[in-house]
Amino acid sequence: MNKLKPCPFCGATAEVHKHYPPFGGRVRVTVRCTICRCNSGEWGRTDKAIEAWNRRVSDESEMLHDMRPC
């Protein structure tokens, strides 16, 4: 598994969370900060959620759009 970068907002560690629908369906994966709870959005695969989380952009307005605080 790819290593998770620290949170781009508060610098805390992040964790992978898998959401299992109660009546079947596709598992959704998100990476979430353990402190401020910003997240990568939901993805169908763990590697895609990690890739979204680890991506850093130079334009702050784009970063705020991509990462969603809870």
Task: Supply the key terms.
70 residues, alpha+beta, two-stranded antiparallel ribbon, 23% helix, 17% strand
Summarize the structure.
23% of the residues lie in helices and 17% in strands. It has 70 residues and is α+β, with helices and mostly antiparallel strands.
Explain this structure to me?
By secondary structure, this protein is an alpha+beta fold. It has one domain. Helices cover 23% and strands 17% of the residues. The chain contains two helices and two strands; from the N terminus they run ββαα. It has a two-stranded antiparallel ribbon with strand order 1-2. The protein is elongated, with a radius of gyration of 12 Å. About 7% of the residues have low confidence.
Estimate nothing, just give the exact number of structural domains: 1
Mean pLDDT: 84
Please tally the helical runs, counting DSSP H or I stretches of 4 or more residues.
2
Sheet of most strands: 2 strands, antiparallel
Characterize the overall form.
Answer: elongated
Assembly form of the protein:
single chain
Report how far the terminal alpha carbons are from each other: 25 Å
Residue share in helix: 10-25%
Which structural class do the helices and strands define? alpha+beta
DSSP strand content: 15-25%
Order of helices and strands: EEHH
Q: Please give the order of strands in the largest beta sheet.
A: 1-2
